[in-house]
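Hey team,

Filing this mostly as a record. A colleague (T.K.) asked me to run one chain through the structure pipeline before their review meeting, and I want the input and output archived in the tracker in case anyone asks later how it was produced. No errors, nothing strange. Just documentation.

Input sequence:
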Amino acid sequence: MAISKKLLNDGEHVVSSMRTHPKALFVPLLWTILFLAVGVAGQTLLDDQTLAWVVWGVALVGILWFAGRPFLTWLTCEHAITDRRVITRWGILTRNGSDVPLHRISEISIEKNLIDRPFGCGTLIITNASDHGKVVLHDIPRVEQTKLQLHNLVYDISGPGRRDEA
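Output structure:
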């Protein structure tokens, strides 16, 4: 998925564009299965049809809240690395975003827990020279390659020895 061209400045090019790894949808999928099981159990075990419809209504609300909302959040979250900055946009009704200029990045680190390793994803932590200090991007696909790519871009901007001279 590509970041919108209208978010880019003149002459700025997208180096890498990604969304959160689909692994983030595993728990919402489990919630969907659980609520469907509750609905089916209510349908088969309850003699009162009205009460069975109430159970299905509760199951539908549960599916929408615990599975539909996280899916929409996953669907609307975008990350991009350009030749000038790291762009992050997310949100369903209210769009939020953060931009970190590459020249402000002071450290790039990753975290990969036991569940992340088989999927090849992880958390990318970008420390910058701002008041906020860190940008944490969870479930980034190919996080190690993304980190190396970001390191190379930061190095290209700062150049050898330039960071020490500032």
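Quick notes for T.K.: The mean pLDDT is 90. The CA atoms of residues 16 and 81 lie 5 Å apart.
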